């Protein structure tokens, strides 16, 4: 996944064969350095980026320019969201608020249905939220549910991730679908309705159903580094379930209001402008973090000094996550700037295959090559725009969904989201491929199947 800060892909820096070979070599190098040389992912991603840049004729003197730009953009976008989410999560867990939510979930839901409950929660929360925002909000809940229910974290984590990922790729107002809707001239309401119809079975298959074999392959417990011991005592008063849940739902409410204001054209009014401002991800999470400090700190009898100490304690566990996610963004930007995705996608679009399948495949290839769902969507939509003139309105909407499904295929080492999930869940690179990457493939393929199925009846 990626935060929508990237511009369109640059013009190709070399020939098609050279770019493809350079991309493959750089990705293999990163995997080898991490798995066999035991190098920290941050340095492996730096070396992989430099290799890609030089092999793609970007030049020695500029070999780290794209990497630095991408790292800064990722840390400045996703990184700030991760920091704010870590603060919210810290107050939820240390105040006992997350325990209250988990106690209620466990009391109301049989253990065998917890994966379904997490998928449903992620689906609802994920409608207005960017993927990264949903992850940082749900991670404390997922970890505690797994710990308290004594279940593998993958069993409850994958359904939550599937819910967020499917919404991210298929349903407006997420940036990818909106980009494609604008480029292809699709109807927003129709795309939203069809997107939800495709997303529901996609989440079911890629989430709760797929999570069971994955949990057997990777039977790991929730990591201690983010939550601490499961049996720790919470000092002072414990927040009510309603207060704890309000912290989780506040950014959802703020972003929903922003979406409603923009959809009704009221964003030009004074009140509408304010709602749009506070509903953007950064402002929404900042407001929520400040609210958490009060509701889960000061209001429970903690002093201002204790609240400040708790806030500072939230930063240490995510330092490595920030650096690795930032480096993943740097490598992604190096690939985007080389133009590798654009040259491959153009060739596929001209192959003569069915248009919906071609749109999906173009997005898949660009996604695999660059690691960016947003760049895959931008480029694929641009390539397919001249080809959709003869399609009906419903099939133009389905083209948006086909591109969206393709844009989330096979998250791997060039995607900052890969490292985000790896570090949060405490997995190895191999375990992340067997769970997160496979889940993303399932979301993409099942999403395509839903699109092709709907194309026969609409």
From TrEMBL:
One of its GO terms (molecular function) is gluconate transmembrane transporter activity. The keyword Repeat does not apply. Pfam families: GntP_permease. It is a multi-pass membrane protein. One of its GO terms (cellular component) is plasma membrane. InterPro entries: Glcn_transporter (IPR003474). The keyword Isomerase does not apply. It comes from the Bacteria. It is found in: Cell membrane. Keywords: Cell membrane, Membrane, Transmembrane, Transmembrane helix, Transport. Belongs to the GntP permease family. This is Gluconate transporter.
């Amino acid at each position: 996944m990626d935060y929508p800060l990237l511009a369109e892909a640059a013009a190709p820096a070399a020939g098609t064969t050279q770019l493809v070979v350079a991309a493959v070599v750089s990705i293999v190098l990163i995997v080898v350095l991490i798995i066999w040389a035991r190098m920290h992912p941050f340095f492996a991603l730096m070396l992989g980026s430099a290799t890609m840049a030089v092999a793609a004729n970007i030049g020695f003197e500029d070999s780290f320019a794209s990497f630095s730009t991408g790292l800064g953009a990722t840390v400045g976008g996703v990184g700030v969201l991760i920091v704010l989410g870590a603060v919210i999560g810290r107050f939820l867990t240390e105040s006992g608020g997350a325990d209250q939510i988990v106690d209620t979930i466990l009391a109301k839901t049989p253990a065998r249905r917890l994966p379904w409950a997490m998928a449903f929660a992620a689906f609802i929360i994920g409608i207005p939220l960017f993927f990264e925002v949903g992850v940082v909000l749900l991670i404390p809940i997922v970890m505690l549910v797994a710990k308290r229910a004594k279940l593998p974290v993958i069993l409850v984590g994958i359904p939550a991730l599937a819910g967020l990922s499917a919404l991210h790729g298929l349903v407006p107002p997420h940036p990818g679908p909106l980009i494609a809707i604008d480029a292809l001239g699709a109807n927003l309401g129709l795309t939203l309705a069809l997107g939800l119809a495709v997303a529901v079975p996609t989440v079911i298959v890629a989430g709760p159903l797929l999570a069971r074999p994955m949990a057997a392959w990777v039977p790991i417990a929730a990591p201690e580094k983010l939550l601490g011991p499961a049996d720790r005592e919470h000092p002072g008063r414990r927040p009510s379930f309603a207060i704890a849940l309000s912290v989780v739902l506040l950014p959802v409410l703020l972003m929903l209001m922003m979406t409603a204001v923009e959809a009704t054209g009221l964003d030009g009014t004074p009140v509408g402008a304010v709602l749009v401002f506070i509903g953007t991800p950064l402002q929404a999470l900042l407001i929520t973090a400040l609210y958490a400090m009060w509701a889960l700190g000061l209001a429970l009898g903690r002093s201002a000094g204790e609240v400040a100490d708790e806030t500072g304690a939230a930063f240490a566990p995510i330092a490595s996550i920030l650096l690795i996610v930032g480096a993943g963004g740097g490598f992604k930007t190096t690939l985007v700037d080389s133009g590798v995705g654009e040259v491959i996608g153009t060739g596929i679009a001209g192959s003569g295959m069915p248009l919906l399948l071609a749109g999906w495949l173009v997005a898949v290839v660009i996604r695999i090559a660059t690691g960016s769902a947003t760049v895959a969507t931008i480029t694929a939509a641009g390539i397919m725009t001249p080809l959709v003139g003869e399609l009906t309105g419903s099939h133009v909407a389905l083209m948006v969904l086909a591109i969206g499904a393709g844009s989330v295929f096979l998250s791997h080492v060039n995607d900052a989201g890969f490292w985000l999930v790896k570090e949060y869940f405490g997995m190895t690179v191999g375990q992340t491929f067997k769970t997160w990457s496979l889940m993303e493939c399932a979301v993409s393929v099942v999403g395509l199947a839903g699109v092709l199925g709907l194309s026969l009846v609409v």
